[in-house]
Write a sequence for this structure.
């Protein structure tokens, strides 16, 4: 089980910020071989959902209140370290993210922009695909909505 911490940008320690940027880069840039601007100026508005295993960051997401990213509350940059995926921590980090949106923003409808190959995972969590597939940073994505 992960130890979950939820922090605003200002509450993050330097080490936590370094670790989350390193994890995102490890997966989204290196593993997925995708050159894109991860540091997008939105981290300051987000709440950061940090999943630790033995004090090491192994799972992460960032959440936004309505209007800060999409019109609806949203979850993004969902990531689990490659070596830790077999433990299904993606479900833990999504559950914590949904709960944090409900607790912090009092919202129940959440929109995500999911990588298409993860559509079944997000369906399992409670999201439904809306619209057509599209390219984001040359990777197929699909918009999805969940009501929780």
């Amino acid at each position: 089980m992960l130890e979950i911490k939820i922090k605003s940008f200002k509450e993050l320690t330097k080490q936590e910020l370094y670790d989350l940027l390193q994890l995102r880069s490890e997966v989204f840039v290196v593993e997925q071989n995708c050159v894109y601007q991860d540091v997008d100026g939105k981290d300051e508005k987000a709440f950061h959902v940090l999943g630790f295993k033995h004090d090491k960051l192994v799972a992460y997401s960032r959440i936004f209140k309505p209007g800060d990213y999409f019109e609806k509350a949203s979850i993004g940059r969902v990531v689990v370290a490659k070596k830790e995926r077999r433990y299904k921590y993606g479900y833990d980090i999504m559950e914590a993210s949904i709960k944090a949106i409900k607790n912090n923003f009092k919202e129940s409808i959440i929109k995500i922009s999911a990588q298409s190959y993860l559509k079944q995972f997000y369906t399992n969590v409670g999201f439904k695909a809306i619209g057509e597939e599209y390219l984001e940073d040359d990777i197929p994505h699909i918009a999805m909505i969940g009501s929780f």
